Amino acid sequence: MNQSYKDTEAGEEPAVITLAGVSFGYDPEHPILHDINVSIPQGQWVSIVGPNGCGKSTLVKLLNALLPKSAGEITVCGHTLQEETIGDIRQCIGMVFQNPDNQFIGQTVEEDILFGLEGLCLPYEEMKQRLDLYTVKLGIDHLLSKHPGELSGGQKQRVALASILAMKPGIVILDEASSMLDEGSRDELMGILRDMQAEGAYTILLITHDPDEILASDRVLALHGGSIAADVPPAQLFRNEDLLEKCHLREPYPWRLARELQNRGITVDVPASEKELIDTLWPYNFSK
Amino acid sequence: MAIQLQQVSYTYADRSMWKQTALHGINLNIAQGSLTGIAGATGSGKSTLLQLFNGILKPTEGTVQVFDITITAGEKSPKLLPLRRRVGLVFQFPEQQMFEDTVEKDLCFGPLNFGVSPEEAKERARKAMTDMGLDLALLERNPFRLSGGQMRKAAIASVLAMDPDIVVLDEPTATLDPVSRAELIALLERLCREQGRTIIIVTHRMDELLPYADSWALLKDGGLAFQGSGQELAADPAILERCGLTVPQSLRYWQAVAQRFGLAGEKPLLTAEALAERIAALLEERKNAAGMEEKGNGHE
């Protein structure tokens, strides 16, 4: 299960993130991450999964030196991580944290989103254009003059996402950034990410527990006990009951239903919709 | 009734030019000892509603009654201490409310504030830890050295330590892994069924609460769009769409099977396991029926 997963298409792309022998721990005796080796090609969409406390957030925070690695080598966008390159690396990574309250600075939503864009020294017209585009995409264009404190949890999360996505970072890292969004809004976010990925300019890292989000990605890195327990495509993860259990994950509902049916001797594929399931079950009766 | 809201409205910054109405004309009843789910699109007023339940916010219009404590808009409110003692509120990201240097001190802080003796406070802390399925050894730990899931549970335990009759939780499972999430829901259900506490959970993951909730309240644009049982919701999932919510997959699959096999009106089966079991039984029935028919045909 520890084999490295190679995507035939993306495998030809140059690696945009490389970790070689990377470890991290507050106490060298008890490392939180141990000897992580992974390479992520440009344009790939990767889900990072694993139980609470397994080091998912720690791993992504090492990439832009929000936490200092204790061993190994990290390369991001061609820069080897060291004191002098932190600035360059941070420029190409956009990170949205679990709790959106941790990243607000502006007095209004508009100010907050523009803050990041000002840092990029963009011309005003360009800033305005991106502000309009991403606030509409995330459905927060009616909240521009509000103070972040007046927003609901889900609205805050959308503002945090808009402010990062508008900066168009080459690497987008979302640390459970959809945890307070309802299912419909999550689907919209997945759509936005899918569009971004199709443009080819973005590499996406998603820390998530959500089966549908995992299913949308190209590749799953499962962390367990401080190392990479599996590096597989999503379908392979959802077919592996032991791995699911180890990572504290659940498969999407249709997968679960299909498995429960198979356990009862009813052979069905994972249905794409409830209609497909009914259509499969109905002839099943008469084929007997 | 544990909680009754009559014609309740709430407006933020009521007397300023930035005023904004978050809730309007809410009539809501929550039965004592029930497990209630509250859902609604982002920004529909869910968190505002919760804060009315223990007097953090006072209604701009209407009356909020919690047990025998009544808060009426425009009137001087009664002493809120008894209300706060009976209604425990767990906010979004509850781990952010931890501040002491050991879990035990954190858990004792609330009870001590309500005038409980130090011995009893410690006793309650231990009980709350056990209720949340946490190891008592963690009491000595620094809360910031716990994992995310443990911290979340410890924060909920700190509310339970106050021994509230009503526990209100705002998105308690967000950012928990699915296994921890299922465990937490099971724990909350136990608190409800075994200890008779009234549990109110705001969630946007309706599917994980649907099999357990006695009743649901759905909010839309600050108004109450639906109040009723999960069964009523299952009978007409279009209500969810009208509230800007997606119909959970478990409900969609149940509805499809129910329609196909004429099971409408039955108690919905909202877990994959229960539905698969039922489908297997249905198929078996049909197969037997078909087998009989075939036999019949054979004799002809």
TrEMBL record, chain A:
Cross-referenced SUPFAM superfamilies: P-loop containing nucleoside triphosphate hydrolases (SSF52540)
Membrane topology listed for this record: Peripheral membrane protein
UniProt-annotated location(s): Cell membrane
Keyword Nucleotide-binding part of the UniProt annotation: yes
Sample GO molecular function, one term: ATP binding
Keywords on record: ATP-binding, Cell membrane, Membrane, Nucleotide-binding, Translocase, Transport
Signal peptide positions on this chain: none
CDD domains: ABC_cobalt_CbiO_domain1
Pfam families: ABC_tran
Keyword set includes ATP-binding: yes
Domain ABC transporter: 17-250
Taxonomy, superkingdom: Bacteria
InterPro entries: AAA+_ATPase, ABC_transporter-like_ATP-bd, ABC_transporter-like_CS, ABC_transpr_CbiO/EcfA_su, ECF_ABC_transporter_ATP-bd, P-loop_NTPase
Protein family per UniProt: Belongs to the ABC transporter superfamily.
Stated name of the protein: ATP-binding cassette domain-containing protein
Organism annotation: Paenibacillus phytohabitans
Lineage of the organism: Bacteria, Bacillati, Bacillota, Bacilli, Bacillales
Automatic annotation (TrEMBL), chain B:
Membrane-topology annotation of the record: Peripheral membrane protein
Signal peptide: none
Compartments where located: Cell membrane
Keyword vocabulary terms for this entry: ATP-binding, Cell membrane, Membrane, Nucleotide-binding, Translocase, Transport
Domain ABC transporter, chain residue ranges per copy: 3-246
UniProt GO molecular function: ATP binding
Family annotation (InterPro entries): AAA+_ATPase (IPR003593), ABC_transporter-like_ATP-bd (IPR003439), ABC_transporter-like_CS (IPR017871), ABC_transpr_CbiO/EcfA_su (IPR015856), ECF_ABC_transporter_ATP-bd (IPR050095), P-loop_NTPase (IPR027417)
Keyword Membrane tagged: yes
Xref: SMART domains: AAA
Family: Belongs to the ABC transporter superfamily.
Protein name per its UniProtKB record: ATP-binding cassette domain-containing protein
The species this protein was found in: Paenibacillus phytohabitans
